[in-house]
Amino acid sequence: MATDAHDPYLWLEDVTGDTALDWVRARNARTVAEYAESTEFADLRERIRAVLDTDARIPYVRRRGAYLYNFWRDAEHVRGLWRRTTMDSYRTDSPEWELLVDMDAVARDEDENWVWSSAQVLRTEDDADQTRALISLSRGGADAVVVREFDLTRGEFVAPEDGGFYLPEAKSDIGWVDVDTVYVGTDTGPGSLTDSGYPRTAARWERGTDLRDAAPVFEGEHTDVAASVWYDRTPGFERSFADRAVDFYTSVRYEITRDGGLTLIDAPGDARVSAHREWLLIRTRSPWTVGDTTHPAGALLAARYDDFLGGSRDMTVLFAPDAHTSLEQYVWTRNHLLLVTLSDVQTRLRVLTPGPGGWVESAIDGVSELTSTDVIDVDAVASDEFFLNSSGYLTPSTLLHGYVGEPVEALKQAPSFFDASALSVSQHFATSDDGTSVPYFVVRRDDHTGRSAGSAPAAPGPGPTLLYGYGGFENSMLPAYSGGLGRGWLERGGTYVVANIRGGGEYGPQWHTQALKAGRHRAFEDFAAVAGDLVARGITTAAQLGAQGGSNGGLLMGVMLTRYPELFGAIVCQVPLLDMRRYHLLLAGASWMAEYGDPDDPEQWEFISKYSPYQNVDPDRAYPPVLMTTSTRDDRVHPGHARKMTALLEEQGHEVHYYENIEGGHGGAADNAQLAFKSALAYEFLWRTLS
User: Fold this and answer.
1) Is the distance from CB of 513 to CB of 284 less than 8 angstroms?
2) Catalytic pick among 336, 512, 584, 666
3) SS3 of 511, please?
4) What is the spatial distance between Cα 634 and Cα 138, in angstroms, rounded to a whole number?
5) CA 631 to CA 615: how far, in whole Å?
6) What is the mean pLDDT of the chain?
């Protein structure tokens, strides 16, 4: 058992140290030699990459005034193109794209390993003129970025010496106020960052001035996750806001008045709060009593913004959860509120419209109820336009477009990347240790369902099965199409399962909060219950059952390995948290203590220590083979977690295979070639081990 006082593998936390990287390269070579040098692997990798690179994919866009912006990668443009088009052109089968940034050319010309992160286009009040953007570029895919201003008219970056806004590499927060002003939080030296490595201070920065002379606007505490300031440019409702993220789920929010003062928005700290025009929305994460009324966790409330700040608590309940239904997403167009709800993990869309007589509900017609649908873009400034994405495990994505009150049209359709004619999807429920019913989806061949059309038993029985899970941070695992999964796993005859365990958001905030801190064991018990249920139903056997998860899901995999090894035949553990004794000391780890707890607090370490994988490796237990993957450039979850766990497993004689991408950030891959390799490696390891 490894302890913080005597950890023989602390040296592996030296991310770019020569000794540590030599250790990494040696294990990479072994894993590649065993799983990635066959003709079959090469074929699988290329078939998955073909899905990622094909021009037949939907070029998803974001509306910014008159233009639709898209970032695109393919085989020719490995690092990607940032481009834009008009709606009329986008409707055609071959849109005419105006190229803005060629990332391959930029990386080559500047001799930097640039990876695209994001872009903020400055919208003018009438949207007639879009001249500037703030572009964030990452070295190797890390969260830390370099921010550079881009001239959309001339198609080039604006150099700092020419007055362009520029921020060196950091986990920065920046946003437009107007063409000559931004709000910014970044690393400006000692005291400017929180213990989690995010901005602690925010300033108003004028073009042509030194960042060090920017006027301070707001600051948080060192122990906060982050402090941020942003500007709402909505005509007639221009406002500045400030936020102290006290922890991952608790914030203190203010409006910044014209004289620089702060007006508290006195909503619950753990609620999600947003303003749109004259409205304030509050989505509760815990019960909130206002007067004689207690609003449950997961409710959505609306109040008039000015009245609420003036002390009124007259609010309208726009959504109230029940035992089966939760609110997954809500997004404003200019005049309407779009809601996406989940009923036993099935999506439904509705529209709410405020008016003189109150809020009116209506439906969005033309959206299939057999797929999972989310809102991917809206025009919240000038119109009631929206874009939706709809897909399912066996249904390729459809991009839908419309305006509230008008028919929805299918704008783009993705092709099928694998033959799904003999596959079906079913939903089941497992019973966890405390009696909670836990849903999960099963995707498999029809001849493996156990029943034929006439309800008679069907052959041939259990087969290789991949169980995927996450279970944290209120993230819901919804049905979605994956061509890579189809080609890498389903076409081979594998069964794919997604477990909707606690810690996620499938049944609202309480589904998440039940698994916080001392309740974390519930997420693990839920996943184990699904694994057992799959065997009980005859879908698979323990020897044929593999599990996969990344990040928080990597922690889940570490616990499955050390606590429930008898349930699995193989485990893929990706970009994981594993040493929970030190996670809060590594990179962004301090920001997650609201999720897991503080290991420096003896009472909290008591429950963390019971499951922390690195502290619970047992040389005397039989573990299934494990593939451990991470990225050197992951500056969110430290690669030391995966490295140290691998070293300890090796020391104790357990079978462990290791691969670390030298770049790629928290996603584990910096381009489509690396992503295809990473995916193919996992599928090849699982298939060989389980079949």
Assistant:
1) no
2) 666
3) helix
4) 11
5) 22
6) 94
Torsion sign over Cα 557, 555, 667, 10:
negative
The pLDDT score that the predictor gives to residue 664 is: 60
Which H/E stretch holds residue 607?
Answer: helix 602-608
**Is residue 662 very low, low, confident or very high in pLDDT (cuts 50, 70, 90)?**
confident
Report which of 456, 681, 441, 673 is spatially closest to residue 570, judged by C-alpha positions.
Answer: 681
Residues 478/345, Cβ–Cβ less than 8 Å: yes
660 token code pair? 């670390």
Closest residue by Cα to residue 473 from 592, 567, 565: 592
Quick one: 627 exposed, middle or buried, by C-beta within 10 A (0-12, 13-18, 19+)?
buried
Going across the sheet that includes 215-219, the strands are: 173-178, 181-185, 201-206, 215-219
Catalytically annotated residue among 551, 591, 631, 679: 551
Sign of the CA dihedral running 583, 472, 267, 201 = positive
DSSP label at residue 587: G
Token representation of residue 579: 């040493």
pLDDT at residue 682 tops 70? yes
pLDDT in the model for residue 451: 36
Task: For domain 152-413, give the CATH superfamily.
Answer: Prolyl oligopeptidase, N-terminal domain (2.130.10.120)
Residue spans per domain, the chain = 10-49+417-690, 61-151, 152-413
Q: Residue 510 forms beta bridges with which residues? A: none
Write the DSSP symbol of residue 516.
S
Residues 6+ apart with CB under 8 A from 310: none
690, two tokens:
């389980």
* Whether residue 222 lies in the annotated active site: no
Provide the terminal-to-terminal Cα distance of the chain, rounded to the nearest Å.
32
- The yes-or-no verdict on residue 455 having pLDDT over 60 is no
pLDDT digits (tens, 9 = 90+) for 601-629: 999 999 999 999 999 999 999 999 999 99
Contact 602, 632 (CB under 8 A): no
Tokens 């298939």, residue located: 687
Q: Is 94 considered catalytic here?
A: no
**Mean per-residue pLDDT, 442-468:** 68
Fold agreement (10-49+417-690, 152-413): no
pTM to 2 decimals?
Answer: 0.92
Integer Cα distance of 282 and 247 in angstroms: 18
Nearest 10 degrees: CA dihedral of 615, 616, 619, 622?
-150
Helix segments in 250-344, DSSP class H:
305-309
Lowest mean pLDDT among 117-131, 230-244, 489-503, 607-621: 117-131
156: β partners: 151
Inter-axis angle of helices 521-536 and 552-563, nearest 10: 60
Task: Pick 197 or 369 by higher pLDDT.
Answer: 197
* pLDDT above 70 for 5: no
Instruction: Provide the CATH topology of domain 10-49+417-690.
Output: Rossmann fold (3.40.50)
Asked if 499 and 527 touch (Cβ cutoff 8 Å), the reply is yes
Q: How far is CA 228 from the centre of its chain?
A: 20
448 pLDDT more than 80: no
Q: Are 426 and 442 in contact (CB under 8 A)?
A: yes
Nearest to 444 by CA among 344, 543, 540: 540
